[in-house]
Design brief:
The protein is an alpha/beta fold and 362 residues long. Helix content is 56%, strand content 10%. It is built from 17 helices and ten strands. The strands form three sheets. A four-stranded parallel sheet has the order 2-1-3-4, covered by helices on one side. Strands 6-5-9-10 form a four-stranded parallel sheet, sandwiched between helices. It has a two-stranded antiparallel ribbon with strand order 7-8. Helix 1 packs across helix 8 and helix 15 packs across helix 16. The protein is globular.
Amino acid sequence: DARRRLLRAAVRGQRTEPADPSRARTYQKKQCTIFDVRSPSEFQKGSVPGAINMPLLDDEQRHKVGIVYKEQGKHEAISLGLQMFSLSSKRFLDTIYKHINSNNKPIIVYCLRGGMRSTSVGKLLATLNTPVKILCGGYKEYRQMVAQQLDELTERDFLVLNGKTGVGKTKLLNKLKRINLPLLDFEDIARHRGSAFGGLGQKYPSRTQQNFENILATAHNKINTNKPILVEIETCLGPVTLPKKLQNKIKSSPMVYLNREFYERVKIIEEEYLKNWNKKEELIFIKRMNLLKKYISASTLEMIISKIKKHDFHFVISELLRVRYDSAYEKSLKRHSHQVIARFNLTHEESKAISYLVKHCV
C-alpha cells in the first residue's frame, strides 16, 4: 500500500525515490522543484508534468557519448561525458541555484532510468549541501506508472457529452470546471480540438503523445470521487490518440446529446477557431482543406478557399458544416442513439443541462 501511494504521488509529479515509504505523505503535500537532466530531445518527447529541463549534455553531445560507449566502452564514455559537462558545469549549477533561491522547495532529479545522470547531479548537489532526492527508476518507471493509471481510468464510469461541431461542449465543460464537477477535458489537455482544423486558434502547440498521457494521468489523480467522470466523445486529437481501451469505454458509456441553433454554432466556431487568425493560420487552413478532397466537390472546395482568402468566415464555417461535418456527425450520433439518456438544446436549455449534469456527477 505504501509503495502504491508513492507511485500515485509520482504521477502527480511530486514524488521522489521510494526508499522511505513513511515519508510518502510529506512529499505528496509539498510542492517540489523537479529537474529533468535528460537531453532536450528526450525532454521534448515527454516529461514529468512541471519538470524543468536541465540537461547534463545536449543532443549532439549525448550522441557522441553514445558512439564512444558502443565503440570503446563505458569507462571512456563516462570520461567523455564528464569532460563535456565540465565546460558547462558553472552555468548548470548557477541555473539550478536560481530556482532553489527563488522558491526554496524540495528538489527532485530524474533521468531516463534513475541512473548515472541523475545520480551524478544528486551527488554533486549533496556535496554542496543542497538536499536532493532521485526519482527511483527515472522517467521510464514514471511512464509505467502512467500506463497503470490510464488502465485504472478505463475502469471508471463516464458520462459522455455528444453533439455536432460547434454546439459548445467545451464551453459547457469550462463552466462545469468552475463548480468542480469531476471531468476530463481531453481537448484542453491535448491542445487540439480533434478535427483537421483543430489546431487553429490554439495559443500553444499541440502536446506530444507522451505528455498528453502524462497530464491525463495527473488530471485523473485529482478526481477524488467515485461518481461518473464527465468527458466529450473523442478518439484522436491531432497528433495524439486516446488509449484504445479508454476509447472503447467512452464509446460504450451513457451519453447526453447536446444541440444548439445553427447560427449560434457558427458563431461559437468562429470565436474559438479564429482567435489568433493570421496569414500563417490561413495557409494552414488551405493546406488542411486538401484533406477533405474526397468528401467535398472540387467546385465547393475552390469556393471555400476563395472565401477564406476574403475573410468571409461565416460562409466558410456554414458551408463546411453543411457539406462535411454535420453529415459525418449524424452517422456517429445514429450509431450511439441507444446510449443517449438525455437531450438538451443549449440555446434554450443550458441551465437545465447543467442541473442535470450536476445531479448525475456530484
